[in-house]
Amino acid sequence: MICVSIGRTRHKMALAEHRALADRGAQLVELRVDWLSRTPDINRLLADRPTPVVITCRRGSDKGRWGGDEDQRQTILRSAIVGGADYVDIEDDIAKAIPRYGDTQRIISHHNFDETPDDLEEIYQGMCDLDPDIIKLVTMANNPQDSVRLLKLVASAEIPTIGFCMGELGLASRLLCVKYGSPFTYATFSSERTLAPGQLSFEEMNRTYHFDRVGSDTRIFGVLGDPVGHSLSPLIHNAAFADSGINALYLPFRVPSDGLEQTLESFEWLGIDGYSVTIPHKESVAELADIRDETVEHLGAANTLLRTPDGAWTATNTDLPAAIDSLRAALEEDSSTKSLKGRKCLVLGAGGAARAVAGGLVAADAAVTVSGRTRQRASDLAAELVCQETGWENRGAQFADILINCTPVGMHPGVDESPFQPQWLGDNTLVFDTVYNPENTLLIKQARERGCPTISGIEMFVRQAALQFERFTGQMAPLEVMREALRRGISAVR
Length: 494
Ligand code: NAP
Hints:
The chain is of the alpha/beta class and 494 residues long. The chain contains 17 helices and 20 strands. The protein folds into 3 domains: 2-202, Aldolase class I (TIM Barrel, Alpha-Beta Barrel); 238-316 and 474-493, Rossmann fold; 320-455, Rossmann fold. 36% of the residues lie in helices and 19% in strands. The strands form 3 sheets. It has an 8-stranded parallel beta sheet. The longest helix is centred in the last third of the chain and has 17 residues, at 457-473. The mean pLDDT is 94. Bound molecules: NADP nicotinamide-adenine-dinucleotide phosphate (NAP). NADP nicotinamide-adenine-dinucleotide phosphate (NAP) is lined by residues 319, 349-354, 372-374, 377, 406-409, 411, 419, 434-436, 457, 460-461, 464.
């Protein structure tokens, strides 16, 4: 279950938001009465409430907005209990001053906005002695391992315990705590008004994560990267799980560049079955894996980690087959053959995407030329893959059957840029832009105007995710559902 926090300065607005949330299916709402600009009228807030409520009045030292004195604050908490609130949030240091009364359940809470302290267990034991119905222990994650420490505590708790980490590094724990036994987790009414660092909105919980499915049997997958805050992978993988009726959750795990090995070790406890891997970990994960498939051996980079039945990690790369499948599908539509053999391909860029695309094309016996703005990087890549290289300033002089943009040029917000002049395009050059935000880049638009066939980066992105989904689950991926979810996500982030 999700408890949605409401923080408004006016009673009228708090009541309206509460009603709106109930209409959208919220089952529990936290009223942050410290946000109200006037003295909280608890009876007004509780009368005719459309869902059960938690009354919380956070003081400044806990990052709340309460401006009155402490006696007044405790009086408000007592009056919420007398008024019959379903739950009242009581900080551990004042718990002894707020006695139990009636049916109101006591949430004994402790927040640490700086760290996940070493004495977590001691703090927790102290909270157990404060007559709690529910314990809420929330700390700041300063590394990915902090979340695991808190979730272990939740899993072993004898009293119902809500425990998660704040901050981007702790985001996954906000969802995972329910799998490990928390009676509910917290979300905010709107992503524009978060009440704590890293908090997700009720809509994100439902739309991106399909949170209502999460329980003790839920399998866990995720993406390892830094940054991952704007990754669209959770949106499309969770949409695919929900559509296929698979009880699984896909999460973003922000892992700093120097923390991969330690994170993978500590995440073993979470029993994660598979990862997508993105920048900056694609190369290091290939090194760390127990087993590397042929593509990873060839490219030295992986975008997927799969757990084998005996617990080993296999690294694979779905970017390469996704790019080649996208090209073959477009060739098939446009001509009688989908063979890439002998086709003249010009690959722009010399980074990770170029490596996967050019590597796949070389393996398919295409005639590949790489062109990058940093000449040395492009010529090193060409030497490694055994293909041609041309200077960036000469890229327009190359005749190409297929042009593939593997640079970020044209990506949002630089949508008025293109890495290739339209007059350089041949009459029937197949133009593949790996950029997927926007779907119709300037390069794609100009190519269409010249009558050239095109492939957008959406195709490759969806196909690499679909191949991961198939490896994760052993089931066919719902390609159209994933494509639509990606399009929805792209329009939402702009
Ligand atoms: P990367 O490893 O950082 O490589 C980027 C390449 O683009 C480098 O060669 C870089 O040149 C070049 N570049 C950057 N800015 C440029 C500019 N203004 N003009 C000319 N060249 C420029 O990144 P990546 O992982 O390969 O990703 C590149 C792009 O591919 C991403 O932005 C994304 O849009 C796309 N992509 C799409 C998918 C998909 O599934 N559709 C998957 C992966 C990537 P230097 O060598 O000089 O730095």
